[in-house]
Amino acid sequence: MATNINLDDILTRYPEEEASLIEILHDIQAAHRHLPRETMKTVAEYTGVPLSRVTAVATFYSAFSFEPKGETVIKICMGTACHVKGANLIKGEAERKLGIKAGQTTKDGKFTLEVVNCVGACAMAPLVIQNEQYYGKFKPVDLDKLLRTGE
Amino acid sequence: MIELTIDGKRVQARKGEHLLAIARREGVEIPTLCHHEAVEPSGACRMCMVEVTRPDWEGWSKLVTACNFPAEEDLIVRTRTDKVMQTRKEILELLIARTPGSQLIAEMAREYGLDHPTLTVGELSEKCILCDICTRVCQNLVTGAISRINRGVEKEVNTPFAEVSDVCIGCLACAKSCPTDAIEFKQVGLERTIWGRTFDLVPCTQCGAPTLPKEQAEWLSERTGMKVEEYFVCVKCKAAQTARTYENIAW
């Protein structure tokens, strides 16, 4: 776990300007798997962006979250092609196996289940993404493998 | 200077001047919701749609937002064509669906023949049309205490984390610039509450009437160089003061 990464170490990678905001947020999200609320004020001061606009940006992009995400983030593509190819079955099976609904994180903090609207790889439909790894022509039974490797 | 046509009338304007500004100067009415003189136009509400064309466009025309469309030589602007009226009506239909409780939107909708709106999705208490005037005013002219939070159907105007803001100065610029009176505030005696924070209004040093919050006076003082105490005189007393000053001037 990388939660001991210092906020200052992240900030000093970027110049003290408005344009650094999103990069800094990305790095904090990567380090902590969420944006700790108390860090937002420091980021606002460093970039010179009002805190209100920092939160506006942080709540606009789905890449950022104020709630901690699981160690493994599983995204199920629900785009048109994946939907036709049975993405709903995969989603239902994943929800049943993990005991959570899409958009939630398991109590032990291991898995976050998300649905996304098309990732642009429709030829591989249906698609499931585990962290940054894409799995095409996915079958509900393949979930077992994904959930095991995430442990 | 350039010349263009608005609703059949030849008018003069500076090149690049926005169509809405020219129209208003010439007395041509164009409805707006998200336009505010104090901040840059944003083209958010789409109510100011007009149809533009040029002699060399061979009959082709397009709809543009008058508030931020730059004027050019020989442009022909029509503000009340069927296409324009229909578009505005559709926009109002969506707005009234979002804010069924807003009187202003209901009145505008009636003007465009929408007596019986068919859609309602918002709650009756919802008045915000997300025009962004309040956040633009606060970000650009005051302290940036509020902004748009979330996106899509969950978008709203609020303080960071919906918590009490420590940069808000209680100036009411957001509430007063809101076209639909969507931002609530309360003022009782010497107390003013907005965005969950209660400000103490300093009583007028002359008559005791409420003036403004100390936070606002300090903020103004920093920018104008005036003493903080000079802001603690109410409008009436200030007018009386000015009148006395002029009385004493020997003409």
Describe this structure in a few short sentences.
Chain A is α+β, with helices and mostly antiparallel strands and 151 residues long. In chain A, 41% of the residues lie in helices and 12% in strands.
Can you describe what's shown?
The complex is a heterodimer of chains A (151) and B (251). Chain A has helices spanning 7-11, 21-32, 37-47, 51-60, 80-84, 87-98, 143-149; strands spanning 72-77, 111-116, 128-130, 133-135. Chain A is of the alpha+beta class. Chain A has two domains: 7-60, no CATH class; 72-149, Glutaredoxin (3-Layer(aba) Sandwich). In chain A, strand 3 and strand 4 (133-135) form a beta hairpin. In chain B, helix 2 (82-98) packs antiparallel against helix 3 (103-111). Chain B has helices at 19-25, 82-98, 103-111, 133-141, 173-177, 214-224, 235-247, and strands at residues 2-6, 9-13, 49-53, 62-65, 76-78, 147-149, 156-158, 185-188, 191-194, 197-203, 210-213. The relative contact order of chain B is 0.09. Chain B folds into two domains: 2-80, Ubiquitin-like (UB roll), CATH 3.10.20; 133-247, no CATH class. In chain B, a hairpin with a 2-residue loop joins strand 8 and strand 9. Chain A binds chain B through residues 37, 40, 50-56, 59-60, 66, and chain B through 135, 138-139, 143-151, 159-161, 165, 167.
Say how many strands of chain B there are: 11
Could you say which structural class the secondary elements and strand pairing of chain B correspond to?
Answer: alpha+beta
Would you identify the CATH H-level superfamily of the largest domain in chain A?
A: Glutaredoxin
H/E topology pattern of chain B: EEHEEEHHHEEHEEEEHH
Number of helices of chain A: 7
Rg of chain B, Cα atoms, Å: 22 Å
Distance N to C terminus of chain B: 42 Å
CATH class call of the largest domain in chain A: Alpha Beta
> How many structural domains can be distinguished in the coordinates of chain A?
2
Main beta sheet of chain A: 4 strands, mixed
- Measure the end-to-end span of chain A: 14 Å
| Shape verdict of chain A | elongated
Mean pLDDT of chain A: 91
Poorly predicted regions of chain B: none
Beta-strand share of residues of chain B: 15-25%
Please write the string of helix (H) and strand (E) elements of chain A.
HHHHEHHEEEH
Percentage of residues in strands of chain A: 5-15%
Q: Any idea what the radius of gyration of chain A is? A: 17 Å
Helix proportion range of chain B: 25-40%
Report the count of strand segments of chain A. Answer: 4
Q: What spatial order of strands do you see in the largest sheet of chain A?
A: 2-1-3-4
